[in-house]
Each structure stands twice: as structure tokens, then as C-alpha cells.
Design brief:
By secondary structure, this protein is α/β, with parallel strands linked by helices. The protein has 3 domains: 2-31; 35-93, Peptidase S8 propeptide/proteinase inhibitor I9 (Alpha-Beta Plaits, 2-Layer Sandwich), CATH 3.30.70; 96-364, Rossmann fold. The protein has helices at residues 2-30, 49-54, 75-82, 116-120, 123-126, 174-183, 214-226, 243-254, 331-348, 354-364; strands at residues 36-43, 61-62, 68-74, 87-92, 95-98, 136-141, 153-158, 199-204, 211-213, 231-234, 236-237, 258-262, 285-291, 307-312, 316-319, 325-328. The strands form 4 sheets. The protein has a 7-stranded parallel β-sheet with strand order 7-8-6-10-12-13-14, with helices on both faces. Strand 2 (61-62) and strand 3 form a beta hairpin. Bound molecules: calcium ion (3 copies). One calcium ion (CA) is lined by residues 267-268, 270-271, 273, 275, 303. Residues 267-268, 270-271, 273, 275, 303 line the site of one calcium ion.
């Protein structure tokens, strides 16, 4: 009897012990990830690490350009943080996408050195004085192909996810297309970009499908400031306002970087509604709309008072993956025309501030549509001079 009782007790204890171990494992496995969401936390002044520690936030990305961090945080913690007087904002980390039109890849055109868009902005006229030398352009995109014979990439970084690395090679094609418009080399093959001797930097902030997060865009802007870029080209956008992104672009502009972004392809054909996406919509960023070879904006082009310049964006032939070339359309394609022209202006006179380059771009533009600045073409078609 006694033996039997002891056996039973032992058995019960073993079952209890196992249950405790299993529940411990379950706790370890599941509790830390319960409802944790990616957020950006902005401080009124300096980033206060004691506030983060107090709320159990130990794994985060700290920005330099703004007093903010990004992290995965449970909603209950976000609510508590919002009540802290040291916290300026806690915002959801929104998604960002490329601004090109979904299109089937057409068979390559016969190779032409100077495409219609490059001729339209009068780049060949400018090459007598300037080819973009000594100007650094960060392309915040899906990366840039590291093996295209028509592209020279000076450096870059991959900022997707939690770990930074140097694997900025393009797995989409979008960033490679944008980069060819800016700086395809003046060699015997393919095409010539607007500023063929400008220095391209691949800042990979979007995945193979052209999707990304505001937090990575901010990290890309941060990288551009730390690495003394002159121009940041962003063929991407989101409808969602972000205080963090607003602060980051404003501070980068103050720090000496010209920022250019796609107005968007979400136009509704109604001039009384503003369709311009962020970051193009911010004061510190040049918003670019697209035109076709007849200088006409498509109905899908975003309109709004923030549109500043128009540039070629329909049937644009440029570099692609595997050493190839394709035609693409979108404000994604118009944006790098402006970035390239800005590089030519900067290269000719390296002492120019971003504000001065911006004024020159507005002054040189050819008025389109209604007389004067309008919400479809901004100041008009971008020109090298
Ligand atoms: Ca070439
Ligand atoms: Ca509209
Ligand atoms: Ca006009």
C-alpha cells in the first residue's frame, strides 16, 4: 500500500513538474510576442533610454536625424508611453510602396543611347559643362543591380529588417531602373543617364515586391546624412502621414540634402482632391509628377498643390536585372529625372545649397498646362538649364 502511494505521489509530482515545464516553455515562447507591433517612438528632446528600459524596450533601432527609435512594442506599452511627458509621439510603422504602374515587361526596344526623356530635359546640352561628377546620390529603393555593365555603384547598404548589411543588390528591378535613369554610363552600350558620372549609392529599404516600412525609409535618410549624400531620390510613397518621416526629411534638408520623391500614381482625375503621397507631400521634399512624350500628364498621376516639377514618366527605357533593359511608367520613373538634373546643377557648382538647387530647378522649368505653377505640373517640365 505504502509503496503504491509513494509511486502515485511520484507519478503526480512528475506530471505536475512536466506541466510546469511545459507552461514555462509556452510562456517563454508566446508571451514576448503577444500583440507586439512595429512603432516609431519620438521624444520631445533627447532619446531617454531610462524611459525605454522602464517599459521593457531593449531591442530597438535608434535614429540620429530625429530624436526617435523604432521597435516592436505591445499595444499596452504604446498606450503607457503616450502618457509620458517626455514622449512626443508613438506612431504605427506604416507601409510604403514603389510608385510605378504594374506593367508587363515589353520586349526590349532597339538599343538607343539617348532616350526621349533624356533628350526632353536637355541633358545632352548640359554634358558640355557637367556630367554629375562628385555628386553623391542615394537611391532609396529595392537596391541596385551589382552586375549591370551600364551602372557603376559606388556603395550602399541594406536596411531591411533588423540587421544592417551590405547586401544591397536589387532583387526587384525597380531600383535598377530608377538608377539607370539617373546615371547609366556614357559607354558604348545601352543608354546614357541624366548624370552619367554621378556617384550612385544603393540604399535598400524596399523588398523584392517594392514594399517597405516608414522606419526603414527614415533609417535610409539617416544613412544618407551620415554618409554625406547630396541628393536622396525616393520613387516611393504612402498615403499615411508620419510625424517621424516629416521630421526626418526636414532635418535632412537642413543638413544639406536635396530630397526628391514621387507624387504618386493614385490620381483620381479630380482636381479638387489632393492625391500627393508622403514623403513627396512634405515641404522639405520635391514632389514630381509624370508626363508622356507629348508633355501630357496621365489621368492616374497624383495632383495637388505640393506638385513641384513634372518629368518624363511614361514608356521610360532603362536598366533592369541580369544586364537587361525594359520600358516602365510611373511617377517612380519621373522622380530620378529630377534627381539627375539636380546632380548636374550641383556638379557644375559644388557650393550650391539644396535650397539654391531647388530654386534653379523651379526657375529653369518649362511651364506646362495652366499658366504658372499648377497642381498637375507644378512649375513645369524639369530642364537642365
Ligand atoms: Ca550606357
Ligand atoms: Ca485629385
Ligand atoms: Ca503650369
Amino acid at each position: 500500500m505504502e509503496d503504491g502511494e509513494i509511486k502515485m505521489r511520484k507519478l503526480k509530482n512528475t506530471i505536475k513538474a512536466r506541466a510546469v515545464i511545459i507552461s514555462c516553455i509556452l510562456v517563454v515562447l508566446f508571451v514576448p510576442v503577444i500583440d507586439a507591433k512595429p512603432v516609431i517612438i519620438g521624444f520631445d528632446e533627447k532619446i531617454d533610454q531610462s524611459v525605454l528600459i522602464e517599459h521593457g524596450i531593449t531591442n530597438y533601432t535608434e535614429y540620429k536625424i530625429i530624436n526617435a527609435i523604432s521597435a516592436d512594442v505591445p499595444e499596452s506599452v504604446s498606450k503607457q508611453l503616450k502618457k509620458n511627458p517626455k514622449i512626443k509621439y508613438v506612431e504605427e510603422d506604416s507601409r510604403v510602396q514603389i510608385a510605378d504602374k504594374p506593367s508587363k515587361h515589353q520586349p526590349p526596344q532597339p538599343l538607343q543611347q539617348i532616350t526621349w526623356g533624356v533628350a526632353r530635359v536637355k541633358a545632352p546640352d548640359a554634358w558640355i559643362n557637367s556630367t554629375g561628377k562628385n555628386v553623391k546620390i542615394a537611391v532609396l529603393d529595392t537596391g541596385i543591380s551589382n552586375s549591370h555593365p551600364d551602372l557603376n555603384v559606388s556603395g550602399g547598404i541594406n536596411l531591411i529588417g533588423k540587421s544592417k548589411n551590405n547586401k544591397w543588390n536589387d532583387d526587384s528591378g525597380h531600383g535598377t531602373h530608377v538608377s539607370g535613369i539617373i546615371a547609366a554610363r556614357n559607354n558604348s552600350i545601352g543608354i546614357i543617364g541624366i548624370a552619367p558620372d554621378a556617384e550612385l549609392y544603393a540604399v535598400k529599404v524596399l523588398d523584392a515586391y517594392g514594399n517597405g516600412y516608414i522606419s526603414d525609409i527614415i533609417e535610409g535618410i539617416d544613412w544618407a546624412v551620415q554618409n554625406n549624400m547630396n541628393v536622396v531620390s525616393m520613387s516611393l510613397g504612402t498615403r499615411t502621414y508620419s510625424q517621424a518621416l516629416n521630421d526626418a526629411t526636414a532635418n535632412a534638408y537642413k543638413a544639406g540634402i536635396l530630397l526628391v520623391a514621387a507624387a504618386g500614381n493614385n490620381g483620381d482625375g479630380n482636381l479638387s482632391t489632393d492625391d500627393v503621397l508622403y514623403p513627396a507631400k512634405f515641404d522639405s521634399v520635391i514632389a514630381v509628377s509624370a508626363i508622356d512624350s507629348n508633355n501630357i500628364a496621365p489621368v492616374w498621376g497624383a495632383d495637388g498643390e505640393e506638385v513641384e516639377l513634372a518629368a518624363p514618366g511614361i514608356d521610360i527605357y532603362s536598366t533592369w536585372l541580369d544586364g537587361g533593359y525594359v520600358n516602365k511608367s510611373g511617377t517612380s520613373m519621373a522622380t530620378p529625372f529630377v534627381s539627375g538634373v539636380a546632380a548636374l546643377i550641383k556638379s557644375k557648382n559644388l557650393s550650391l545649397t539644396p535650397q539654391e538647387i531647388r530654386s534653379a530647378l523651379a526657375y529653369n522649368a518649362v511651364d506646362l498646362g495652366d499658366t504658372g505653377r499648377d497642381r498637375i505640373y507644378g512649375f513645369g517640365l524639369v530642364q537642365t538649364g
